[in-house]
Amino acid sequence: MGKKLEEFDIHWLEEPMNPFNKKDHASLAKAINIPIAVGETIYTRYDFRDYIEMGAVDVVQADATKLSGIDEWLEVAALARSYDLEVIPHTNFQQILHVQLAAACSNVPMVECCYESIMDICESQIAVENGYYTLREEPRLNCKFNDKILSDFRIG
């Protein structure tokens, strides 16, 4: 399937197989001319290290909320940079966090944008204007959940 997709000039193929199967990702990366992106379901820097060293990833989609936090995300980004790999942070609704991290790293050209329907789950928002995020000026991330939104889904 990967060979057939090459003609469509796909920017990357995201987690095309079971994300815990590093060996097959490495084989696929060598067999096709579409960059392989992984990271949405990778939870440690050690797993990212293995993917990178095996040549099983071209686009690192690290997520600070799935790793052990900001420090580990920065370590993954630095590791990716040492292999000349881009990091495109995986994100659901935590753009505020990942936009700040992206601004601190030279190998992060963009941040995934989530569905607008879940953007209001956090009290503070970060808007996309003309395809760009604007960094917030307040001195904290403020990723606090919006209690009003959460109460709509509370059971009991």
Automatic annotation (TrEMBL):
Protein name: L-alanine-DL-glutamate epimerase-like enolase superfamily enzyme
Molecular function GO labels: hydro-lyase activity; magnesium ion binding
UniProt GO BP: carbohydrate catabolic process
UniProt domain Enolase C-terminal: residue ranges: 1-139
Keywords assigned: Magnesium, Metal-binding
Gene3D superfamilies for this protein: Enolase-like C-terminal domain (3.20.20.120)
Taxonomy, superkingdom: Bacteria
Presence of the UniProt keyword Ribosomal protein in the record: no
SUPFAM superfamilies, per the entry: Enolase C-terminal domain-like
Native organism: Geomicrobium halophilum
UniProt xrefs under InterPro entries: Enolase-like_C_sf (IPR036849), Enolase_C-like (IPR029065), RHMD-like (IPR046945)
Cofactors demanded by this protein: Mg(2+)
